[in-house]
Amino acid sequence: MINHLVRKNILNLKPYSSARDEFKGTRAVFLDANENPYGNLNRYPDPQQLELKQKLSQLKAVPAGQIFIGNGSDEVIDLALRIFCEPGKDKIMICPPTYGMYEVAADIHNVAVVKVPLTGDFQLNVPEILLQSERLNPKIIFICSPNNPTGNSLYDIEPVLQNFKGIVVIDEAYIDFSKRTSYLGRIKEYPRLIISQTFSKARGLAGARIGIAFSSEEIIRLYNRIKPPYNVSALNQKAAVKALDNRQDYEQQLSDILAQRDWLLKELGQLDLVQQIYPSDANFILISIPNATHIYQNLVDKKIIVRNRSAVVDNTLRITVGTPQENETLINELKNYEKSPVYR
Ligand SMILES: *Cc1c(COP(=O)(O)O)cnc(C)c1O
């Protein structure tokens, strides 16, 4: 059903097959992979990450055959380009301001980027998306919701799902922080839909590099054909399984972060300095502030690092919700800045 969207060389590819792919059992005499027989990280990891997929399958109510695990979502994005976009020929569509990796990945693959900016209130410009996709036939559209760096959820995804002719990637890196429902349930209806999630944000495993793609079996099979055989290390698989088993910490941290987001919103709202606070469904807050770059540098000098997003939205800083102490340090510094002669 999607073969017309897939690059010919990928359809014709004879994938690498490891001996571990062919032998499914455990506790055998393994003399196939030139490993050192001694030690505890001496064996190659499970190339299919089955234990992790089974846990995710239960948690998310998605069959394991519709789950791909990547070395971070960055790999999920990169492989989508490799599957669908012919270098020097095909295009993707993005809706800036949004996550920077879509464009970087496209640039790496020499794939053109069609940009349909978000509207003034950072929502999808649906008529323009559909018009431009009709005209230019981008293979993939990347939709980030909740969106990075603006923080808001995108409301009008439905008409894109129904009318876009290529692959729709919905990047839900921040979905855990949002009250809105995930589009995960929709992969049954839309075989060209890929939902990208990650362990890097709410699950607290940015250091372990675990990204997830949920999609149709057909697309997941393509991912599996082209992925590096051992793309997720044994240590990382284990860390991810452990994180899923530890529901309590996850829920506690999530509620702490959401409470701290509210606290930051309240405190930021009381600062004269802050011109606008954008609504957030994520674990960060985008604010408009005059002389943002100057204030950013001032914070860096105090060893407080926020993200200066002025290059993508004029005079803005993106602030990640930290621990209560970290958040207080930031607010105190902004208060000091307000009192300083530079500001007054
Ligand atoms: C942080 C982030 C990711 C996560 O990327 P990983 O490679 O999984 O760490 C994905 N998408 C967006 C929009 C993000 O902000």
Quickly list its features.
344 residues, alpha/beta, seven-stranded mixed sheet, four-stranded antiparallel sheet, 12 helices, 13% strand, globular, binds pyridoxal-5'-phosphate
Note down, in words, how this protein is organized.
This protein has 344 residues and is α/β, with parallel strands linked by helices. The protein is 37% helix and 13% strand. The protein has 12 helices and 11 strands. It has helices at residues 8-11, 19-22, 50-60, 73-84, 101-108, 126-136, 158-163, 217-226, 234-245, 247-269, 292-301, 324-339; strands at 67-70, 91-94, 112-115, 140-144, 167-171, 193-198, 211-214, 276-277, 284-288, 307-308, 316-320. A 7-stranded mixed beta sheet has the order 1-7-6-5-4-2-3, sandwiched between helices. It has a 4-stranded antiparallel beta sheet with strand order 8-9-11-10. Strand 8 and strand 9 form a beta hairpin. Helix 3 (50-60) packs parallel to helix 9 (234-245). The longest helix is centred in the C-terminal third of the chain and has 23 residues, at 247-269. The termini are far apart. It binds pyridoxal-5'-phosphate.
Strand-helix topology:
Elements: H1 8-11, H2 19-22, H3 50-60, E1 67-70, H4 73-84, E2 91-94, H5 101-108, E3 112-115, H6 126-136, E4 140-144, H7 158-163, E5 167-171, E6 193-198, E7 211-214, H8 217-226, H9 234-245, H10 247-269, E8 276-277, E9 284-288, H11 292-301, E10 307-308, E11 316-320, H12 324-339
Parallel strand pairs: 2-3, 2-4, 4-5, 5-6
Antiparallel strand pairs: 1-7, 6-7, 8-9, 9-11, 10-11
The protein binds pyridoxal-5'-phosphate.
Pyridoxal-5'-phosphate (PLP) is lined by residues 72-74, 99, 144, 148, 171, 173, 198, 200-201, 206, 211.
